[in-house]
Amino acid sequence: MLPGDGRRCAGEQMAVDESAAVDFGSRTRSRPLFAAHTNAGQRVARGSMYYGEWRLSELGSPIKPVINDEKIIKAIKALKDDSSAGLDGISVKILKLNIYSLIKPLSHIFNLAIATSTFPECFKISVITPIHKKGDKSNIENYRPISQISNIAKAFEKIIKKELVNYIESNNLLSCTQFGFRPGKSSEQAIATVLSYIYNSFENKKKCATVYLDLARAFDTIESIV
Protein backbone atom coordinates (compact mmCIF):
# COMPACT_ATOMS: atom_id res chain seq x y z
CA MET A 1 0.00 0.00 0.00
CA LEU A 2 1.57 3.29 -1.03
CA PRO A 3 0.72 5.53 1.90
CA GLY A 4 1.66 4.10 5.27
CA ASP A 5 2.97 0.60 4.57
CA GLY A 6 3.41 -0.84 8.05
CA ARG A 7 6.65 -2.70 7.30
CA ARG A 8 10.10 -1.22 7.86
CA CYS A 9 13.78 -1.98 7.65
CA ALA A 10 15.33 -3.88 10.54
CA GLY A 11 16.42 -1.64 13.39
CA GLU A 12 14.74 1.48 12.03
CA GLN A 13 11.49 3.16 12.95
CA MET A 14 8.87 4.26 10.49
CA ALA A 15 7.18 7.62 10.95
CA VAL A 16 3.44 7.28 10.55
CA ASP A 17 1.22 10.22 9.71
CA GLU A 18 -1.91 9.39 11.70
CA SER A 19 -3.90 12.13 9.97
CA ALA A 20 -3.36 10.33 6.67
CA ALA A 21 -5.10 7.14 7.81
CA VAL A 22 -8.00 6.32 5.54
CA ASP A 23 -11.21 6.17 7.52
CA PHE A 24 -13.85 4.93 5.11
CA GLY A 25 -16.52 5.29 7.77
CA SER A 26 -16.12 9.05 7.88
CA ARG A 27 -18.26 11.44 5.90
CA THR A 28 -15.06 13.14 4.76
CA ARG A 29 -13.45 9.88 3.62
CA SER A 30 -12.23 11.46 0.36
CA ARG A 31 -10.14 14.02 2.24
CA PRO A 32 -7.89 11.65 4.21
CA LEU A 33 -7.40 9.48 1.12
CA PHE A 34 -6.09 12.45 -0.83
CA ALA A 35 -4.03 13.46 2.20
CA ALA A 36 -2.37 10.08 2.19
CA HIS A 37 -1.68 10.36 -1.52
CA THR A 38 -0.43 13.95 -1.60
CA ASN A 39 1.78 13.48 1.47
CA ALA A 40 3.49 10.45 -0.05
CA GLY A 41 6.22 12.53 -1.68
CA GLN A 42 7.04 14.34 1.56
CA ARG A 43 7.31 11.08 3.48
CA VAL A 44 9.60 9.63 0.82
CA ALA A 45 11.83 12.71 1.00
CA ARG A 46 12.33 12.40 4.75
CA GLY A 47 12.90 8.65 4.55
CA SER A 48 9.75 7.68 6.42
CA MET A 49 8.17 5.51 3.77
CA TYR A 50 9.09 1.89 3.11
CA TYR A 51 8.18 -0.95 0.79
CA GLY A 52 8.85 -4.26 2.47
CA GLU A 53 12.56 -4.22 3.29
CA TRP A 54 13.44 -1.45 0.84
CA ARG A 55 13.66 2.24 1.57
CA LEU A 56 12.31 4.09 -1.45
CA SER A 57 15.41 6.28 -1.65
CA GLU A 58 17.37 3.13 -2.51
CA LEU A 59 15.48 2.99 -5.81
CA GLY A 60 17.26 6.13 -6.89
CA SER A 61 16.32 9.77 -6.55
CA PRO A 62 14.40 11.05 -8.28
CA ILE A 63 12.40 8.10 -9.62
CA LYS A 64 12.42 8.23 -13.42
CA PRO A 65 8.80 8.78 -14.53
CA VAL A 66 7.36 6.17 -16.86
CA ILE A 67 3.88 7.71 -16.95
CA ASN A 68 3.85 11.36 -17.90
CA ASP A 69 1.23 13.98 -17.08
CA GLU A 70 -0.31 13.84 -20.55
CA LYS A 71 -1.12 10.13 -20.23
CA ILE A 72 -2.77 10.66 -16.84
CA ILE A 73 -4.86 13.58 -18.11
CA LYS A 74 -6.04 11.54 -21.13
CA ALA A 75 -6.92 8.57 -18.91
CA ILE A 76 -8.98 10.70 -16.51
CA LYS A 77 -10.77 12.54 -19.31
CA ALA A 78 -11.62 9.15 -20.87
CA LEU A 79 -13.49 8.05 -17.72
CA LYS A 80 -17.27 8.07 -18.04
CA ASP A 81 -18.92 10.88 -16.09
CA ASP A 82 -21.62 8.56 -14.78
CA SER A 83 -19.14 5.98 -13.42
CA SER A 84 -19.89 5.15 -9.80
CA ALA A 85 -17.35 6.12 -7.18
CA GLY A 86 -15.49 3.42 -5.32
CA LEU A 87 -15.21 3.10 -1.56
CA ASP A 88 -13.17 6.31 -1.40
CA GLY A 89 -16.20 8.30 -2.60
CA ILE A 90 -14.19 10.21 -5.24
CA SER A 91 -16.34 10.72 -8.32
CA VAL A 92 -15.17 11.15 -11.90
CA LYS A 93 -16.54 14.70 -11.83
CA ILE A 94 -14.29 15.61 -8.89
CA LEU A 95 -11.25 14.18 -10.69
CA LYS A 96 -12.00 16.05 -13.91
CA LEU A 97 -12.69 19.37 -12.17
CA ASN A 98 -9.44 19.15 -10.19
CA ILE A 99 -7.32 17.31 -12.74
CA TYR A 100 -4.53 19.91 -12.95
CA SER A 101 -4.27 20.21 -9.17
CA LEU A 102 -4.07 16.44 -8.75
CA ILE A 103 -1.78 15.62 -11.66
CA LYS A 104 1.50 15.82 -9.71
CA PRO A 105 0.52 13.63 -6.74
CA LEU A 106 -1.15 11.13 -9.08
CA SER A 107 1.94 11.07 -11.29
CA HIS A 108 4.07 10.36 -8.23
CA ILE A 109 1.80 7.55 -7.03
CA PHE A 110 1.53 5.86 -10.43
CA ASN A 111 5.24 6.02 -11.18
CA LEU A 112 6.10 4.92 -7.66
CA ALA A 113 3.83 1.90 -8.07
CA ILE A 114 5.63 0.93 -11.27
CA ALA A 115 9.10 1.56 -9.84
CA THR A 116 8.38 -0.68 -6.85
CA SER A 117 6.28 -3.24 -8.77
CA THR A 118 3.55 -2.65 -6.20
CA PHE A 119 -0.13 -2.08 -6.89
CA PRO A 120 -1.45 0.09 -4.03
CA GLU A 121 -3.64 -1.85 -1.61
CA CYS A 122 -6.16 1.00 -1.45
CA PHE A 123 -6.68 0.59 -5.21
CA LYS A 124 -7.66 -3.06 -4.69
CA ILE A 125 -10.61 -2.28 -2.41
CA SER A 126 -13.93 -2.55 -4.24
CA VAL A 127 -17.61 -2.13 -3.56
CA ILE A 128 -19.24 -5.38 -4.68
CA THR A 129 -22.86 -5.31 -5.86
CA PRO A 130 -24.55 -8.65 -6.67
CA ILE A 131 -26.67 -8.50 -9.85
CA HIS A 132 -29.25 -11.24 -10.41
CA LYS A 133 -28.74 -13.07 -13.72
CA LYS A 134 -31.48 -15.69 -13.86
CA GLY A 135 -33.21 -18.42 -11.91
CA ASP A 136 -33.94 -18.63 -8.21
CA LYS A 137 -33.10 -15.37 -6.47
CA SER A 138 -32.40 -17.23 -3.24
CA ASN A 139 -29.52 -19.11 -4.91
CA ILE A 140 -26.29 -17.12 -4.63
CA GLU A 141 -24.87 -18.83 -7.73
CA ASN A 142 -27.46 -17.02 -9.85
CA TYR A 143 -25.87 -13.63 -9.14
CA ARG A 144 -23.07 -11.85 -10.97
CA PRO A 145 -20.82 -9.60 -8.88
CA ILE A 146 -20.24 -6.05 -10.11
CA SER A 147 -17.07 -4.50 -8.72
CA GLN A 148 -16.84 -0.72 -8.25
CA ILE A 149 -13.21 0.28 -7.79
CA SER A 150 -11.68 3.67 -7.16
CA ASN A 151 -11.83 5.97 -10.17
CA ILE A 152 -8.17 6.80 -9.57
CA ALA A 153 -7.43 3.09 -9.91
CA LYS A 154 -9.49 3.00 -13.12
CA ALA A 155 -7.34 5.76 -14.63
CA PHE A 156 -4.18 3.92 -13.60
CA GLU A 157 -5.45 0.66 -15.11
CA LYS A 158 -6.35 2.43 -18.37
CA ILE A 159 -2.79 3.69 -18.70
CA ILE A 160 -1.26 0.28 -17.95
CA LYS A 161 -3.64 -1.47 -20.34
CA LYS A 162 -2.79 0.90 -23.18
CA GLU A 163 0.94 0.39 -22.66
CA LEU A 164 0.54 -3.40 -22.56
CA VAL A 165 -1.69 -3.51 -25.64
CA ASN A 166 0.71 -1.29 -27.59
CA TYR A 167 3.62 -3.55 -26.67
CA ILE A 168 1.77 -6.79 -27.48
CA GLU A 169 0.41 -5.51 -30.79
CA SER A 170 3.68 -3.92 -31.95
CA ASN A 171 5.55 -7.16 -31.25
CA ASN A 172 2.90 -9.42 -32.85
CA LEU A 173 2.55 -11.53 -29.71
CA LEU A 174 -1.07 -12.51 -30.37
CA SER A 175 -2.43 -14.99 -32.88
CA CYS A 176 -3.93 -13.54 -36.05
CA THR A 177 -7.10 -15.45 -35.15
CA GLN A 178 -7.48 -13.62 -31.84
CA PHE A 179 -10.34 -11.21 -32.49
CA GLY A 180 -11.74 -10.50 -29.03
CA PHE A 181 -10.69 -7.44 -27.02
CA ARG A 182 -8.33 -6.14 -29.69
CA PRO A 183 -8.38 -2.74 -31.42
CA GLY A 184 -9.51 -2.95 -35.03
CA LYS A 185 -10.89 -6.49 -34.55
CA SER A 186 -14.49 -7.63 -34.25
CA SER A 187 -16.74 -10.69 -33.99
CA GLU A 188 -17.79 -10.09 -37.62
CA GLN A 189 -14.20 -10.65 -38.72
CA ALA A 190 -14.05 -13.85 -36.68
CA ILE A 191 -17.22 -15.15 -38.38
CA ALA A 192 -15.88 -14.18 -41.83
CA THR A 193 -12.63 -16.04 -41.15
CA VAL A 194 -14.46 -19.21 -40.09
CA LEU A 195 -16.80 -19.08 -43.10
CA SER A 196 -13.87 -18.58 -45.44
CA TYR A 197 -12.16 -21.65 -44.00
CA ILE A 198 -15.36 -23.73 -44.40
CA TYR A 199 -15.96 -22.61 -48.01
CA ASN A 200 -12.34 -23.34 -48.95
CA SER A 201 -12.65 -26.83 -47.47
CA PHE A 202 -15.82 -27.52 -49.45
CA GLU A 203 -14.29 -26.25 -52.68
CA ASN A 204 -11.26 -28.49 -52.21
CA LYS A 205 -13.48 -31.47 -51.31
CA LYS A 206 -12.07 -31.70 -47.79
CA LYS A 207 -13.86 -32.54 -44.58
CA CYS A 208 -14.46 -29.71 -42.19
CA ALA A 209 -15.52 -29.73 -38.55
CA THR A 210 -15.88 -27.00 -35.95
CA VAL A 211 -15.86 -27.16 -32.18
CA TYR A 212 -17.44 -24.37 -30.15
CA LEU A 213 -16.67 -23.98 -26.47
CA ASP A 214 -18.33 -21.79 -23.88
CA LEU A 215 -16.72 -21.82 -20.45
CA ALA A 216 -19.25 -21.60 -17.62
CA ARG A 217 -18.24 -18.95 -15.06
CA ALA A 218 -15.04 -18.32 -16.99
CA PHE A 219 -13.96 -15.42 -14.79
CA ASP A 220 -13.99 -17.66 -11.73
CA THR A 221 -11.38 -19.93 -13.34
CA ILE A 222 -8.74 -17.16 -13.30
CA GLU A 223 -6.03 -17.61 -10.68
CA SER A 224 -6.80 -14.88 -8.15
CA ILE A 225 -3.19 -14.43 -6.97
CA VAL A 226 -1.91 -13.48 -10.44
Automatic annotation (TrEMBL):
Keywords: Nucleotidyltransferase, RNA-directed DNA polymerase, Transferase
Organism: Aphis craccivora (Cowpea aphid)
Stored PANTHER family: REVERSE TRANSCRIPTASES (PTHR19446)
Any Pfam family the entry gives: RVT_1
Cited PROSITE patterns: RT_POL
Record protein name field: Reverse transcriptase domain-containing protein
InterPro entries (alphabetical): DNA/RNA_pol_sf, RT_dom
Keyword Oxidoreductase appears in the UniProt entry: no
Lineage, broadest ranks: Eukaryota, Metazoa, Ecdysozoa, Arthropoda, Hexapoda
Segments forming domain Reverse transcriptase: 112-226
Gene Ontology molecular function terms on file: RNA-directed DNA polymerase activity
